[in-house]
Amino acid sequence: MKAAGILALIVCLVASTESKVYTRCKLAKIFSRAGLDNYAGFSLGNWVCMAYYESGYNTTAQTVLDDGSIDYGIFQINSFTWCRYAKLQEKNHCHVACSALITDDLTDAIICAKKIVKETQGMNYWQGWKKHCEGKDLSEWKKGCEVS
Ligand SMILES: *[C@@H]1O[C@H](CO)[C@@H](O)[C@H](O)[C@H]1NC(C)=O
């Protein structure tokens, strides 16, 4: 009973946080500062393009998949392997609560995305990237933005 009440409260708090949609250049700047440009050999354009096709730059984007797992946040990181949404959950490779991946502060999401790239050896984890960004000229994605 108590647990259910707390859970309901958490759900309410999560649901009431406003969704934030970053602009392309703001995101490019954040990614650049966080060292994503050329991280594991992937230029900034790859990251900005990927985030666009995964979440539309929406930090609170959540997608429930057929298997019941949930993709979280700007990089649509999945709860089954990468973050913790239930108390006793084994995988959680990023050692982070899934709720931390849907905040305006992208620190945790970026750390987790870096881990995914390292552990899965590339950006193939992201279908949106594979479909729309891989192998393309991605210079347009940082065009007009104040990033080097
Ligand atoms: C961002 O995602 C949340 C959660 O899916 C949704 O409620 C909200 O409408 C989205 N915002 C925009 C601007 O699309």
UniProtKB/TrEMBL annotation:
Residues 94-112 form the Glycosyl hydrolases family 22 (GH22) domain. Keywords: Disulfide bond, Signal. Residues 1-19 form the signal peptide. SMART domains: LYZ1. It comes from the Eukaryota. Coiled coil: none annotated. It holds the Pfam family Lys. Belongs to the glycosyl hydrolase 22 family. This is Lysozyme-like protein 2. It comes from Daubentonia madagascariensis (Aye-aye).
